[in-house]
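Subject: Protein record for review, amino acid sequence with backbone structure tokens
Why sent: The fold of this protein is of interest and is recorded here as tokens.
Notation: Tokens come from a learned vocabulary of local backbone shapes, not from coordinates.
Attached in line: The record itself begins immediately under this heading.
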Amino acid sequence: MKRKTIFFVMLLGLTGLLAIQSCKKTEGPDPKSYEAAMPANPAPAVSGVLAFTGSGQTVDLTWEGTASVAPKWDVYFGTSSDPALVATNVSGNKYTVTLTHGGVYHWHVMTTDANGVTSPDIVTVWNFDVNSNPNAPKVPKPDSASVGKSCTPTLTWTGTDPEGDDLTYDVYLDTAAVPKLSAAGLPSASYSPAIALLPFTVYYWKVVAHDPYGGSATSNVWKFTTGALPISFYTGNYNADEPAESYSYGVTFALVDATHIKTVNYWNSGWTGKFTLDLTNLTYTMPTTTWTSGYSGTESGIIDPTTGTMVGYYTIWQNGVVAEQGLHTYTKL
């Protein structure tokens, strides 16, 4: 009886050992981990600016991203912020696109490799700017080759940019056929010279447009011919009347510059009087002027742009004492 019990126990132990060995033999291989392809470091750089060289220009899109199995990429590209799929199963981390125009382009890449490992569903959309040069300025005012133009002109033109970039302008203006720079960095398409131009003179001018990304374009060279200075209307022979004195005499006003005329017979005394004309406010002034024999004087009044008449009050002193005050009326002959 004791032997049977021992044999039965040994039999159970042997059976358990075989069962354990059987379980070990049926276990599968150790699990493997796979690396998903994570695209990064795009080129062109995000928000980078490339110069547009013309329709048919090519740009290489490159990126980083490796996986356990060499991935084949899907490339999305276009001008929309949600770019369309343009290529599938691209080998390597590069794809070349062809451009027809400038502007902002958006792109990204995704992949599923041979092990079924996929790039993240939430992707970063990259972008870069292909910058076109501005359009050459055109539509000049004054019209090219026009004559009799103002000596105090406002030059205007039309400036546009293919991408709608804000432009600045450099203006070249001169009496030489190759004009020199007159103003730089103007924010709008107009320019008024600070000093009046010479009368009856041919002027040449051009405009260079600049965008914020280094693009530029130059207009043709235009020209125009000035007429007389506006102040020229107030030159020539006048009758000077002093009603309070019941007295009149002749004076001649000569052009000094764009804002001044002068006479050499002021107060009918052979004195030089220099008038400053404000053609905007239609006024004139003669600052206090000292002449010989202790005389000095001043005058101010208004001007008439239709007749050239000037009417103003004057004061003459001799050695600091008022010698005469009155009204001058200068009537053009």
